[in-house]
Amino acid sequence: MTRHQKRLSAPNAWPVERKTATFTVKAGAGPHGEAGVPLVVLLRDVLGYVDSTKEARYALNEGSVLVNGDAVSDEQRPVGMFDILAFTEREEYYRVFPQEGGRLALTPIDAEAAGSRLGKIVGKRQVAGGATQLTLHDGENVRLEDADVDYDTKDSLVVDNDSGEIVAHFPYEEGALVTAVDGSHSGDIGRIDEITVTAGSGDNTVTVDTDDGAFETIEEYVVVIDEQFVDGEEADEASADADEAESADGGDDE
């Protein structure tokens, strides 16, 4: 297996410029499979905190860069969808979130939101002792001793970064708030209007209602998310509306 990664052949989700150089850093072994972005790419190419891989190593050895609550020293550690990136000395926190075109981007969040991360259930099975094991989209396994838990594949969980405990559960169902993470509607957020089960080996499809209309995609491309993912946007819109109303009132007084 090659130790090199050409920029032109890098996964579409990687936020790298394709024609500025020939090679980029190859992701190491870890979560998210081939879609995982090496941490140094985010530090160097996205945030601009370092200028080289060597500088990234020095910075990471300080122990102040956390991924999902754990200090990371490997600059090639893969980072992917819904991971939490924290810079403790800077007091900066980001969530990795898909944007238009499927490319991963860093969304600023507050310290409280950085304490947990979202995971989509992609596998569920019984293990020794009667426990239930859930496999999340990044490859992490969550073991549940209660065999009667009401969690299904395609549901989403919020997992505490410190304890590893499940703190919230969002079922995959009609009316659920979702985001598209792949395909032509990647980054769009809306609510599931209809789930269509396709007979045979074809993919099931979902129709999602958004503020700008509706779109249809396969269910593999959608992930159920928490309301906090859109709270910031709603708050900004509410603030803008309030400013417009205040301006209008001021005009009437004059």
Number of helices: 3
Query: How large, in whole angstroms, is the Cα Rg?
Result: 20 Å
Instruction: State the shape.
Output: globular
The SS-based structural class is alpha+beta
Instruction: Give the strand content.
Output: 25-35%
What is CATH's topology name of the largest domain? Structural Genomics Hypothetical 15.5 Kd Protein In mrcA-pckA Intergenic Region, Chain A
Number-wise, the strands total 19
How far is it from the N-terminal to the C-terminal residue, by CA? 73 Å
Q: What count of structural domains?
A: 3
Q: What value does the average pLDDT take?
A: 81
- One letter per element, helices H and strands E, the order comes to EEEHHEEEEEEEEEEEEEEEEH
Low-confidence stretches: 232-254
Largest sheet: 5 strands, antiparallel
Q: Give the % helix.
A: 10-25%
In CATH, the homologous superfamily of the largest domain goes by the name RNA-binding S4 domain
Determine and state the CATH class of the largest domain. Answer: Alpha Beta
Q: Please identify, by name, the CATH architecture of the largest domain.
A: Roll
Sheet with the most strands: spatial strand order: 5-4-7-8-9
Pfam families: Ribosomal_S4e, RS4NT
Family: Belongs to the eukaryotic ribosomal protein eS4 family.
Keywords: Ribonucleoprotein, Ribosomal protein, RNA-binding, rRNA-binding
GO molecular function: rRNA binding; structural constituent of ribosome
What this model shows, in words?
- GO terms for molecular function: rRNA binding; structural constituent of ribosome.
- It comes from Halobellus ruber.
- Keywords: Ribonucleoprotein, Ribosomal protein, RNA-binding, rRNA-binding.
- Residues 231-254 are annotated as: Disordered.
- The protein folds into three domains: 5-111, Roll (Structural Genomics Hypothetical 15.5 Kd Protein In mrcA-pckA Intergenic Region, Chain A); 116-169, OB fold (Dihydrolipoamide Acetyltransferase, E2P) (Beta Barrel); 177-228, SH3 type barrels.
- Helices cover 17% and strands 34% of the residues.
- It contains three helices and 19 strands.
- Strands 5-4-7-8-9 form a five-stranded antiparallel beta sheet, with no helix packed on it. It has a five-stranded antiparallel beta sheet with strand order 12-11-10-13-14, with no helix packed on it. It has a five-stranded antiparallel beta sheet with strand order 18-17-16-15-19, with no helix packed on it.
- A hairpin with a 4-residue loop joins strand 7 and strand 8 (92-98).
- It is globular.
- The model is unreliable at 232-254 (pLDDT under 50).
